[in-house]
Amino acid sequence: MHRSTPMLTMVLLGAACFACASGGAVPSDKLARSEAAVRAAHELGAEQSPQAALHLRLAREQIDKAKKLMQDGDNDKAGLLLSRAEADAEVATNLTRESAAVSEAQKTMATVQQMRSTLQMQQGNGGM
């Protein structure tokens, strides 16, 4: 029995190393979510805003890197990278929405200012 103990130890260590290197389950759900987030940002026009475009580009690059990691069997790192990609795509979406809201608010303010000017001119003409 004394001779089998080192062999058993080596087998167990080998199994443990294999388990660590296997990289976990394929993060296909994270891949789908991150790709959907990129599509959403793109459809909102994230490329039109420099900051949003940067985050969208980062998200796309992270997805590409994650796919390569998945092919290499490093699913844990791929999953983390896909989470970052999804977050960057969501930042791009939010920046795009913010930019659109600011633009709409500026247009509304300009319209209000124009209406005030018109009203003041009409009141000034009516008083003469």
What does this 3D model show about the protein?
85% of the residues lie in helices and 0% in strands. It is an all-alpha fold and 128 residues long. Residues 16-20 have low confidence and may be disordered. The protein contains four helices and no strands. It has one domain: Substrate Binding Domain Of Dnak, Chain:A, Domain 2, CATH 1.20.1270.
Q: Regions with pLDDT < 50 over 5+ consecutive residues?
A: 16-20
Overall geometry comes to rod-shaped
Order of helices and strands: HHHH
CATH architecture classification name: Up-down Bundle
Q: What is the number of helical segments per DSSP (H or I, 4+ residues)?
A: 4
In CATH, the topology is named Substrate Binding Domain Of Dnak, Chain:A, Domain 2
Identify the CATH class: Mainly Alpha
- Largest sheet properties: none
- The radius of gyration computed from the alpha-carbon positions, rounded to a whole number of angstroms, is 28 Å
Give the termini distance in whole angstroms: 116 Å
Instruction: Summarize model confidence as the mean pLDDT.
Output: 87
According to DSSP, the number of beta strands is 0
Integer tally of domains:
1
Please estimate the helix content.
over 70%
Q: What percent strand? A: under 5%
